[in-house]
Amino acid sequence: MSKLGKISFLFAGVSLVSMSITRYLLGAWVPFCWLALGLAVLFLTVGLVKDRAFFKEFFTMKTTKEGMSMGVLIVLMLAVLIIVNYLGVKHYKTWDFSSGRTNTLSEQSVKLVKNLDSDLKVLFFYKKGVEGNEENRRMFRELIKKYQDESAKIQLNFVEVNERPDLAKDYGVDKGSGVVFLDYKGRRNRIEKIDEQEFTSALVKVTREKNKTIYFTVGHGEKDLNDKKEGLGLGSLKVMLENNRYTVRELPLIQNPKIPADADVIVIAGPIHGFQDFEITALENFLKEGGSLFLAVESQNTAGLEKLVGKLGVQFANNYILNIVDTVMGRGVNQGPTVGPVFSESNKITKSFGRSEVTLFRFPQALKKVSVPAGIVVDEIVKTTPDAMAFDSLQIRGEGPEGSYALVDEVTGRWPGSDEKAKEFSLIVAGDVDFLTNQMLYQNLNRDLVLNSVAALAKEESLISITPKEAQATQMLMTETKFGVFLFAFIIPLPILLLGTSIGLWLRRRNA
After folding, report:
1. Which letter does DSSP use for residue 224 in this model?
2. Model pTM?
């Protein structure tokens, strides 16, 4: 190669590098880039023309042809690998081989994601330096990946609070331990727990176009809906319902015995004073028209509501259900919270509850099924264990009747005497109100029981908690005979076999 050719190729390279650096630094194509590109083409052409004889001889050599063939093959292989990886990223399939299907979304979650007709923004707010943030981000990224596998409309963004204070203020983020917001068509919902149940529930809420309205009756000494400080208030319940995009209002039924047309659910929480007959009639008419009612009544104070539930085959026992515990002194009565650990496995409200989980009540009364009318279904969704006892008063003396008592019932069907065209009503009856209060709402499964009950009454089954998926352990139980076979057929012979093989190979190589 001639000296002029070498200089031309050098200047061509310098021109290309100058063009690339200029384009990168300025972030735009400027006239100088055209000049540099033109000089590169010019110098390259001069070099090729000057040393054309050299290049002609070089490309006709056998070694050059073989090298070029190998180069083309390498380029083709790289192109194939790039295409395969690109297609693998865009179109891929995952398989879940876990026995509990813990790595697979539920059918409910998949259906919701596939029905998205607009982009769903998922914002994860965090602060640098906060302990546990990296682990939370990793776990959340893995969770969202399952949803993104089903739809390309889910957009995940991690937002550092100090870097985007405007965005944090807009979303009301006041901490950086990992707060997540879902934003869909301007509707937002906040979650703080990283699991499928919380995310899918939030997804249902932001995709719901209209809020459901829940009315709480007042005027009968019910628990205070606006009390957030006292333990027996319902302020936490109101906040929880509003955070789940329910509209919560009060209903002074005794002043105006007319159920509002927008009432999706009516809640009666712990009344002290009795309901008047005209109020009972209004509630009956509400149920006859397919309404939904939630009754939570204390023992010894049913406020006249036994007239309503009695027509549907449910009777208040007006007793106190307490758990029995074994102590060093023998069996005793536990006068603390009453545990309700037995759930209906077929009812949509409780079928997702685990066998080792419980709900807690404070001195609840039992509910009895008596003379259930035709067309009515009474499902005992929460019960005690068979070793619970019933007492007529809280002055515990001796032992009471022992058994498994129903604490919460779901009653569904058409009002007795209605024709077949009548709408079906939904009624939840609880023998306690304290599990709704500030001090007990977030204990154990109380929150889930309340939210699932409200979702069922509001005819929003998609909001009911998804069944938790628990990793199932594989246990290997060996009898004495099986262990002996395992020991003498595998544990002892295998090391001897390996040792003998090693010695044989060593002797063979040494004598070779």
Report:
1. P
2. 0.64
Average pLDDT over residues 22-38: 84
Per the model's pLDDT, the better-predicted residue between 242 and 475 turns out to be 242
3.30.450.40, 3.90.1150.10, 3.40.30.10, 1.10.3210.10: which CATH number matches 107-205? 3.40.30.10
Judge residue 82's burial from the number of C-beta atoms within 10 Å of its C-beta, 0-12 exposed, 13-18 middle, 19 or more buried.
exposed
Q: Is 200:180 a contact under the CB 8 Å cutoff?
A: no
pLDDT band at residue 494, thresholds of 50, 70 and 90?
Answer: confident
Q: How far apart are CA 207 and CA 353, in angstroms?
A: 25
Q: Across residues 397-423, what is the average pLDDT?
A: 90
Give the phi and the psi of residue 158 in degrees, each rounded to 5: -95, 125
**Predicted confidence (pLDDT) at residue 471 exceeds the cutoff of 60:** no
Determine contact, residues 478/486, Cβ cutoff 8 Å.
yes
Name the H helices within 230-305.
235-243, 277-288
- The answer to whether 440 and 430 have CB atoms below 8 angstroms apart is no
Q: Between the CA of residue 311 and those of 28, 386, 409, 410, 464, what are the distances in Å?
A: 79, 28, 14, 14, 28
Element (H, E) at 421: none
Read off the pLDDT of each residue in 359-367 and give the average, rounded to a whole number.
94
Give the end-to-end CA distance of the chain in Å, rounded to a whole number.
57
Distance, in Å, from the CA atom of 369 to the CA atom of 55, rounded to the nearest integer, reads 100
Question: Which fold would CATH assign to domain 211-317+365-380+403-463?
Answer: Rossmann fold (3.40.50)
Residue range 318-361, pLDDT digits in tens: 999 999 887 767 778 888 899 999 999 999 999 888 778 899 99
**Is residue 52 helix, strand or coil?**
helix
The phi-psi region of residue 186 (left if phi > 0; otherwise alpha if psi is between -120 and 50; otherwise beta) is left
Show the CA angle centred on residue 135, arms to residues 134 and 137, nearest 5°.
Answer: 65
> Does the pLDDT value for residue 52 go beyond 90?
no
HEC profile of 84-103: HHHHHHHCCCCCCCCCCCCC
* pLDDT over 60 at 431, yes or no: yes
Q: How many percent of the chain have pLDDT more than 90? A: 37
Beta carbons of 240 and 451 less than 8 angstroms apart: yes
Q: Dihedral sign, CA of 127, 132, 138, 142?
A: negative
Please provide the size of the chain in residues: 512
Check: CB of residue 375 under 8 Å from CB of residue 330: no
Residue-wise pLDDT tens digits, 243-266: 777 899 999 999 988 999 999 999
Distances in whole angstroms, Cα of residue 23 to Cα of each of 19, 29, 37, 206, 397: 6, 6, 11, 44, 91
